[in-house]
Amino acid sequence: MPADVKFEIPLPLRLNEGWREAAERNLDWLARRHLISEGTAGLYNLFKSERLVGYTFPYASPHGLDMANRIVSVCTLLDDQFDGPAGRDPVSARAISASFERLLEDADGAEDGEAAGRSPLHQAFAEMWRDSCAGKSAAWRARASESWRRYFGSLVHESGNRRRGEFLPLDCYLEQRLVTGAMQQFTDACEVAGEFEVPWVAFNIPHVRIMRTLTADFVNLANDLASLEKELAAGETDNLVMVIRNERNCTLEEAIEHAYHFVAGKVERFVELREEVPEVVAALELPEEDVAVLYRYLDALAAWIVGYERWQRETFRYRKADAVDRATGAGYRLDDLLSVS
Questions:
Q1: Residue 31 CB: number of other CB atoms within 10 A?
Q2: Any idea what DSSP says for residue 339?
Q3: Can you spell out the DSSP letters for 225-246?
Q4: How far apart are CA 52 and CA 225, in angstroms?
Q5: Are 239 and 224 spatial neighbours (Cβ–Cβ below 8 Å)?
Q6: C-alpha atoms less than 13 angstroms from C-alpha of 303 in its C-beta half-sphere
Q7: Which residues form a coiled coil (predicted)?
Q8: What is the helix (H) or strand (E) element at residue 118, kind and residue range?
Q9: pTM
Q10: Are 125 and 73 in contact (CB under 8 A)?
Q11: Which CATH number does 19-328 carry?
Q12: CA angle 323, 75, 151 (to 5 degrees)
């Protein structure tokens, strides 16, 4: 099984020097918000998500690194809640998703707002969203909230797919996978962690939008390869390898090979487009400060590609999936974080 799958990526790998200190701060933040407990902290630490943040946000200040950790942790724990019954119950999935979607309306985040009296995860999400939006324009908030809304919708769609127990066509699966992995939020988080905002003209350059999609595709689909063994054991159908095997009517080994080359092609295209950007930008005659911010964003996307690939080969999230499942009885759902205490 390809848990140790390796991609050749011609992009520079860096690790934020402050990642260890940030990891301690994040574990403390998670514990104080009752998202991990004494019994689950060790299991959570197997995933090494803070090291992922160190690789994928190498440019971030200590504050930016803290924000990146909170975004990634909250989203990961939220996603893992759907390893439980809600992951196969579209009605429940829709209700849970709607309860979080409502929190996006209050970017200013009044302390006694929608999240008050809700679960620890709702409260942590509201805090994370409020802090993410601090200093950002209304346009950025609208873009980032749409990323979250698409993600919440995808959780319902995935639940419905599990209920059906059938394979999606490849093109439909790829459209769904673009958002189920939360990479739209994580590429928005580049601007939060880096404490900048890409001007709208620069952000909407076709090359840039495609590179953002390629980044998400690579991470999500490389994840499909790494998590294949876990998902086969769980009877999942939403995985690139299994979708290809079903569509091509080929062996598992052939499907893995097809999937590998498909995913590697995302990196190749990203690099090609990156080389064309200077000419495109020059023709637009953008202000120097806009160009500088744009290149910071493109470097941040590249850091996600190369950083995720390295982390995926280091984490125990996939190699120890069976141990986590035995310990929790519900996949990666370490605790029920949606109940009000």
A1: 15
A2: S
A3: HHTHHHHHHTT---SHHHHHHH
A4: 17
A5: yes
A6: 25
A7: 211-238
A8: none
A9: 0.91
A10: no
A11: 1.10.600.10
A12: 115
Q: Which two three-digit tokens encode residue 37? A: 């407990």
Residue 1 contacts residue 239 (beta carbons within 8 Å): no
pLDDT tens track of the chain, all 341 residues?
A: 566 789 999 999 999 999 999 999 999 999 999 998 877 776 677 677 889 999 999 999 999 999 999 999 999 999 888 877 888 899 999 999 999 999 998 766 554 456 666 899 999 999 999 999 999 999 999 999 999 999 999 999 999 988 888 899 999 999 999 999 999 999 999 999 999 999 999 999 999 999 999 999 999 999 999 999 888 887 788 999 999 999 999 999 999 999 999 999 999 999 999 999 999 999 999 999 999 999 999 999 999 999 999 999 988 766 655 554 554 444 444 455 666 44
Q: Which residue type, as a one-letter code, is found at position 33?
A: R
Outline where the chain has alpha helix (H). Answer: 19-32, 41-46, 49-56, 62-80, 90-101, 120-133, 138-164, 170-180, 183-194, 200-203, 206-226, 228-233, 240-248, 252-284, 288-312, 321-328
Return d(Cα 63, Cα 57) in angstroms, integer.
Answer: 12
**Residue matched to tokens 């998670």:** 30
Helix 138-164 vs helix 170-180: crossing angle, to nearest 10: 130
Give the span between the Cα atoms of 110 and 51, in whole angstroms: 32
